[in-house]
Design brief:
By secondary structure, this protein is mostly helical. The chain contains 12 helices and no strands. The chain has one domain. The N and C termini lie far apart (59 Å).
């Protein structure tokens, strides 16, 4: 019997097949898990490169001791922080650099675009961003573990200068800050790699970015030593959240829980912006790549 005029016809609501959805998720995990394992094996082969780089970080730490030791000569504190707190901050920076730093992801992506290696991803159901991120995660797992070898060797000489706060909230909020910081690190490197669709060389862009990151990311000096108005501006830039923000949480340079929550919100916002921008560059870059017969 057909519904009369004005009567409502029964609605047909499509429901996703749970088994098909589960199968798709397993397939994706397997696909990118394989990429992660390949990246892990590749980086284990070159583990000595990371180990040597880690030992060179001891030289950087020695320079930190000399420079900041001279700065603290005759001063009990600078900016409200003692020498041991500042040394702890730089030790944490070294750990983060090896744990989430984007060493050469931008150049690797650039090389794949220049050599046409990305063509294989256009014919397969593989998200290039996720693929590259899985390789980045594998590399950082290896380098993040290896950096502790030189630090453990140096620990007997620096242990009296290491003083981490033990507040439980720092761990609860610090680890999400590290994960989001890794997303920002990789996304920025990915975006610079995408510029290869328009420019033959991206080295100038990368060097400029590294210079800005060194200053506004707190890698040369803690950002809380900047004038307050500059610090407030830096808090709204992505570079603040690459290294300084998680390091400041774990080393006690940030003590206001409300400010940390606000920072996590801004950091999450930057992750969203950079993810959208990276996808924009990828889609526009592919159009250009296809138009010129790449």
């Amino acid at each position: 019997m057909r519904p009369g005029r004005g009567a409502l016809a029964p609605l047909s609501i499509p429901f996703a097949d749970p088994s098909a959805l589960f199968s798709t998720m397993i397939s994706s995990l397997s696909k990118y898990g394989h990429s992660f394992l390949v990246g892990l094996q590749s980086n284990i082969v070159y583990r000595w490169n990371f180990a040597i780089r880690g030992f060179f970080s001891l030289f950087h730490l020695a320079v930190v001791f000399v420079l900041w030791g001279a700065a603290y000569a005759g001063n009990h504190s600078i900016g409200g922080f003692r020498l041991d707190q500042t040394i702890t901050y730089f030790v944490m920076l070294i750990i983060l650099q090896f744990l989430i730093g984007a060493f050469n992801e931008d150049y690797q992506i650039s090389e794949e675009i220049r050599n046409g290696l990305i063509n294989q991803f256009l014919l397969k159901p593989i998200n290039y961003f996720v693929y590259r991120f899985s390789i980045y995660a594998a590399a950082r797992l290896v380098s993040g573990l290896l950096v502790f070898v030189p630090l453990l060797i140096a620990f007997p000489f620096i242990r009296e200068y290491i003083t981490f706060p033990t507040d439980s909230w720092r761990f609860l909020l610090g680890f999400p800050a590290i994960i989001l910081g890794a997303m920002i690190q990789f996304s920025i490197a990915y975006c610079f790699g995408m510029l290869t669709f328009w420019f033959l060389e991206i080295q100038g862009f990368v060097i400029l970015s590294m210079a800005i990151e060194s200053v506004l990311g707190g890698q040369i000096f803690p950002l809380d030593l900047l004038p307050p108005w500059i610090l407030r501006i830096a808090e709204y830039l992505p570079f603040y959240y690459q290294m300084y923000f998680p390091a400041a949480i774990f080393t006690g340079r940030l003590n206001d829980v409300a400010a940390v929550w606000r920072g996590l919100g801004i950091e999450l916002g930057w992750v969203g912006v950079l993810l959208c921008f990276s996808q924009f560059l990828w889609s526009r870059g592919l159009r250009r790549h296809t138009a010129v017969g790449g």
